[in-house]
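TASK: fixed-backbone design
INPUT:
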């Protein structure tokens, strides 16, 4: 991030420096990572404290949040296209803070899941509107560069959050995790309220009616490139959610890392942050398609190797961690570029487009990730098999979107 001046059209919309805008958008998106990753070290104690006997059912603490996060995005998008970005965003953030604080007092596992679902509903606004904010101000490769910088900052949270969660578990009990989460979100809410300008000009706002909303969805869902890349990124995100669901069982249950689990988890996230930073520096020269298509092929190749080794027998920790880190290194070049390519032709309905994209990615990716997590059988075979299938599916969808040609250096006609 730097202090370089914004283009004229961007400067007109922003009253804060470029670096602060990127940091603020990253903070909004990071609240979602925080809500998931800070929980991981505490899942075992939550299950024991609230009487959860099946260890796979502890994953529902993650799944409930993701499900709550999914569908409301379809409302946040059109509402923000009509009313502007700030108002709906602030409502969602307040709901997030309140639900997180209340979860610290949950008397039962069922109540905890309900509050996590509510927290996800509040967080849905941050995901939709964060992407809309960037699309309001930037387009094309500039948007991909900014999204990469956002992802770089965003990925710092998976590095820090599990360590924070583990620190809480060493010195206190699991409810304190929710107190800490609510406090961090409250600071982000105050920062947003004080500093974030409105980025959607009044003349660009769309009416909020059933016909207008359906027309917005029609525009999004009938755009071949946008739809193909949205579903492809959903599959890749499904793999990420699968890892998040299974990480504690893999690193602690299989490899016996104990309290060192958050350190290895943070190392993987750190490599994803590095690749996002590299993407921000390279995308302007090489383009979104060259980088993301190459990364997708690399992602698939590494996961095929890991799956083959898993079938042959137990995979040593060093080998598994190295290969998985290489696979997730590619993720930093896939996620931000796929999102930017999907959003590029939809700037005139950015809120609705971001809502549909977020809904499909979150709900679809969450369900896929839950399936991978529930398939855990004490080995890494189901996990690695899932990653391979998702990689092949994403490649097929990209080929559909690009009419069978990879590594284009221009935007093909869309329809």
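OUTPUT:
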């Amino acid at each position: 991030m730097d202090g370089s001046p914004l283009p004229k059209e961007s400067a007109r919309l922003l009253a804060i420096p470029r670096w602060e805008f990127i940091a603020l958008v990253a903070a909004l998106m990071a609240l979602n990572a925080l809500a998931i990753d800070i929980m991981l070290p505490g899942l075992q104690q939550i299950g024991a404290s609230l009487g959860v006997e099946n260890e796979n059912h502890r994953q529902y603490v993650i799944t409930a949040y993701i499900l709550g996060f999914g569908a409301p995005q379809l409302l946040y998008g059109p509402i923000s296209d009509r009313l502007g970005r700030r108002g709906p965003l602030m409502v969602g953030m307040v709901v997030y803070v309140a639900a997180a604080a209340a979860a610290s007092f949950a008397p039962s596992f069922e109540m905890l899941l309900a509050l996590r679902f509510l927290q996800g509903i509040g967080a849905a606004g941050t995901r939709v509107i964060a992407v809309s904010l960037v699309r309001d101000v930037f387009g094309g490769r500039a948007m991909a560069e900014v999204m990469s910088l956002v992802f770089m900052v965003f990925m710092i949270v998976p590095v820090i959050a599990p360590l924070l969660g583990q620190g809480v578990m060493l010195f206190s009990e699991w409810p304190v995790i929710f107190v800490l989460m609510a406090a961090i979100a409250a600071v982000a809410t105050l920062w947003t309220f004080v500093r974030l300008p409105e980025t959607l000009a009044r003349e660009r706002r769309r009416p909020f009616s059933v016909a207008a909303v359906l027309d917005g969805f029609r525009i999004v869902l009938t755009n071949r490139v946008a739809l193909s890349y949205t579903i492809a990124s959903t599959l890749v995100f499904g793999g990420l959610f699968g890892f998040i669901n299974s990480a504690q069982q893999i690193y602690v249950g299989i490899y016996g890392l104990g309290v060192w689990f958050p350190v290895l988890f943070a190392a993987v996230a750190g490599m994803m942050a590095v690749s996002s930073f590299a993407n921000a520096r390279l995308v302007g020269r090489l383009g979104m398609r060259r980088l993301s298509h190459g990364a997708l092929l690399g992602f698939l190749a590494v996961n095929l190797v890991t799956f083959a080794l898993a079938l042959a027998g137990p995979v040593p920790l060093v080998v598994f961690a190295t290969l998985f880190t290489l696979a997730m290194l590619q993720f930093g070049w896939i996620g931000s570029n796929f999102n930017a390519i999907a959003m590029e032709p939809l700037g005139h309905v950015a809120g609705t487009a971001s809502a549909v994209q977020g809904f499909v990615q979150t709900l679809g990716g969450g369900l896929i990730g839950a399936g991978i997590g529930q398939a855990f059988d004490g080995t890494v075979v189901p996990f690695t098999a899932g990653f391979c299938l998702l990689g092949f599916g994403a490649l097929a969808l990209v080929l559909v979107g690009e009419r069978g040609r990879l590594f284009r250096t221009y935007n093909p006609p869309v329809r």
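COMMENT: The two ends are 35 Å apart (CA to CA).
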